[in-house]
Amino acid sequence: xxxxxxxxxxxxxxxxxxxxxxxxxxxxxxxxxxxxxxxxxxxxxxxxxxxxxxxxxxxxxxxxxxxxxxxxxxxxxxxxxxxxxxxxxxxxxxxxxxxxxxxxxxxxxxxxxxxxxxxxxxxxxxxxxxxxxxxxxxxxxxxxxxxxxxxxxxxxxxxxxxxxxxxxxxxxxxxxxxxxxxxxxxxxxxxxxxxxxxxxxxxxxxxxxxxxxxxxxxxxxxxxxxxxxxxxxxxxxxxxxxxxxxxxxxxxxxxxxxxxxxxxxxxxxxxxxxxxxxxxxxxxxxxxxxxxxxxxxxxxxxxxxxxxxxxxxxxxxxxxxxxxxxxxxxxxxxxxxxxxxxxxxxxxxxxxxxxxxxxxxxxxxxxxxxxxxxxxxxxxxxxxxxxxxxxxxxxxxxxxxx
Length: 402
Fold this sequence. Notes:
By secondary structure, the chain is α/β, with parallel strands linked by helices. It is about 20% helix and about 20% strand. α6 links the parallel β14 and β15 (about 345-350).
């Protein structure tokens, strides 16, 4: 009798264990289904041939002008002073061309950073205010109606890359962000007028230096996210309002038009996910202002194509670094040429001063840009090199001056 009771007790224990396991599995599967079933709005362009069916990935619309590591006459110019050049062997990634140097020697980020003017950020006084935060991160304010964050990365990289970056000579941050999420004019509980504005976050692609969930998690919840097509399905369900856009598509919010435009670059962190989502640049069109953010890109005929489809651009935010990877990144002179293709009026450079993501010295990009500017002499275009934290403004609010 005792043996039978013990046997029944074991059966009940196994039954309850099985039931508990089923409950846990049901909750787990339900959470997965919840995450996967989050509906995302997608704006597609069936007329664009951007999918390589043979390689099963997205492709650039135009071939790049330059190949990987291809050099020009500009590469034979030494933009460094003797005291800024010191041999250095990197622990992980050395310059494949040889003669590696300490790429930060002589670079002091405090010389290229200013404290943001929080008064004008919280109380915009201009039609357009563009604040360069660092690397590819910008805050674009249009009147007091729209607050647009582009590629906000205020924190270290996501995942293991962020943990290990400080131990490497490449991709370790060399400049802190002059702004935190709490400093933004639309931050939760800030009491600032910016809280009443429509807040938008636009992401150019999914690389660590452009997409940072550590930063996004600190932003208010009522934000509308615009991302390249494909990336919308990878955003966690905790971000409820995510719109995926194909190249040469647009969306409107009131009198603001948001265009997603092609670039010569790529996406994906790991080899198995290369180019499975799109990449590109953004054009924000509001009243008579047209503000273009190029995203990471190499030079190609794509910029003439953009102009032929969407017209000229007023303000160009252009990357000028990492030109060893010239098929996917601008050298400064490439950025100028692309801006000329777009008939830009104002040229604002970025991508320098924070991370070393290629083999040039930290001080080279702006020096090479200024040299190229003098040689190329672009017509009807103003060069405006901002410091991190600095704001460029256009138009006096309420006077409709452009």
